[in-house]
Design goal:
By secondary structure, the protein is α/β, with parallel strands linked by helices. The chain contains five helices and six strands; from the N terminus they run βαβαβαβααββ. The C terminus is likely disordered.
Length: 151
């Protein structure tokens, strides 16, 4: 049919929920589905770890997603899509390990929160933010302190 490079990216939506809360979980999945549709990506399914399985490194549905990526992603570009990086794990070490498993099967992880640009703010609102975070040293000049923090 066509070259695999021209086929839509295959998306594997993942989330986790340690509580019995479903409203926020469903909202996050809807955000991921809407983002994938906007990008023209093909959603293959969604995987959700719940309860205790959502907390550690041994996640049955994450492992199932990895197996599906390996099987369905043959020659295709594949993405694990999450609403935010915390949906993979709060712990940075666990998060890095789980993301590495996706990389090992030829995929990449994308967080909607990082992919969507923040809403534009007006010039007046931007100036208020600068003034609030800095010290005015002369009319029209604001010195903004930087603490050496990186994003």
């Amino acid at each position: 049919m066509g070259d695999d490079a021209t086929k839509p990216i295959l998306v594997f939506i993942y989330d986790r929920e340690g509580t019995s809360q479903t409203d926020r979980l469903l909202a996050r999945i809807a955000i991921c589905r809407a983002f994938a549709a906007e990008m023209g990506w093909e959603v293959t399914g969604q995987w959700v770890d719940r309860g205790d399985a959502a907390m550690g490194e041994r996640r049955p549905f994450w492992q199932g997603m990895i197996a599906a990526m390996k099987q369905q992603g043959q020659g295709r570009r594949i993405v694990c899509l999450v609403a935010s990086w915390n949906r993979v794990a709060y712990d940075l070490g666990v998060r890095a390990h789980l993301r590495q498993l996706v990389t090992e099967v030829g995929g990449t992880c994308v967080a909607v929160e990082d992919a969507v640009p923040p809403p534009p703010i007006s010039r007046d609102a931007a100036m208020r933010q600068i003034r609030a975070s800095g010290q005015q040293i002369a009319p029209g000049t604001t010195l903004v302190r930087h603490d050496g923090m990186t994003a």
